[in-house]
Amino acid sequence: xxxxxRLAIVLIAAFxxxxxxxxxxxxxxxxxxxxxxxxxxxxxxxxxxxxxxATVQAKLDAHAAPRTLPRAVAQAAEPxxxxxxxxxxxxxxxxxxxxxxxxxxxxxGVQAGVDTYLMWRGVANQAIRDYRRDPQPITLIGHxxxxxxxxxxxxxxxxADIPVSxxxxxxxxxxxxxxxxNVQRYINIYQSLSVMGGGNIISARGFHGHYASxxxxxxxxxxxxxxxxxxxxxxxxxxxxxxxxxxxxAGQGEAVPIRYAVPAASAxxxxxxxxxxxxxxxxxxxxxxxxxxxxxxxLTQLNAMSEEATLAGGERIVVPxxxxxxAVAYSPVFKLSLGRP
Length: 341
Fold this sequence. Notes:
Blueprint (H helix, E strand, L loop, with lengths): L1 H16 L9 H8 L16 H12 L8 H5 L6 E6 L3 H4 L2 H11 L3 E6 L3 H14 L4 E6 L1 H15 L6 E5 L14 E6 L19 E6 L15 H13 L14 E4 L11 E6 L6 H8 L3 H8 L12 E6 L20
Parallel strand pairs: 1-2, 1-3, 3-4, 4-5, 5-6, 6-7
Antiparallel strand pairs: 8-9
Helix pairs in contact: 7-8, 10-11
C-alpha cells in the first residue's frame, strides 16, 4: 500500500514537472556516475535566471533586506564537515533551492554537494568511505522525496555505526521512515496541508537526540515547491551547520522533542529542541516566555495551555531552545532565493 502511494506521488509529480528530477544527466549526478570514487559536486549554476524567475526575484528584492549571513556564521573559525543535499521529484524544476543552499554552505568552508533523491545510496557509500578515512561532522538535507532520501541515508549510516550531526527535511512525504538513533539533531520544516509533502516524521525507538518539527501551514506564502527557497530559513540552517563543530550535541537538561505550528504573523524560528524548566511560585507562561526570550505562543503550544493558565510551584514547563547563539529568524515578509549565487 505504501509502495503504491509512493508510486502515485512519483507519477503525479512527473506529470506536473516533466520528470526533471529523474534525469541522470543532472550535473551533480553525472559527476558521481563518471567517477564513483569522487564525492558528488554541487552543479554549476546557470549564468542567468529564466525570465519568469528573474521577474519574481526583482519584485522580491525591491522590498527585501540585503542577503547576508548571520553574524555567527561570519565570525565562525574554520568550520569543518560534509553536507549532502538531495532534490525531490522534478528536482531540476522545483528543488533548485537545494543548489542555492549548497552554494551558501560551501562558502563557509563546509563541503556540500547536491544530487537527486534517486542517487542517495551511491552517495552514502562514498560518505562512509570518506568518514572512515577522515571523520568530519555529517549534515543531511533533502526537499520533498529528497527529504525521504535523506532519512534513508541516515538509516544507512546508522547500520555502519556512523553518526549524523544534523538531519533536515523540507516537506518530506508522509511515507518517509522514522528518524534513526544515530542522528544527533533533527529538524523538519513542513506544510501539514501539502499534498506532495506534509510529512510530520517521528523518531525511531532509541532516538535520544534533539528533535524539532515545524509546521508552516499558517504561512500561505510558503508552499511545497518553494519551501526550500525561503532565504531566512536557509540562513538559519547555514548558521547551525557552521556551529556544529563547536557546539556540543548534548545541551544542558533533557532534550525534549518539540512540534509546533508557526502563526501567520510570527517569525519562523528553527529551535533545536525543548528543555524542561521548573515553574516557581508566582510564575506565569508570560513571565517564563519573557525570562527565556521566546514568544508566548510557543509555550502555549508546547505545553497545551492557555496564556492565562495558573502555574503551580514545581510544575514542569517545556521551553524551546537553541543549542548555540540564536540565528536570524525568518521574517513574515516573504522572500525567496531562486538559485542565484
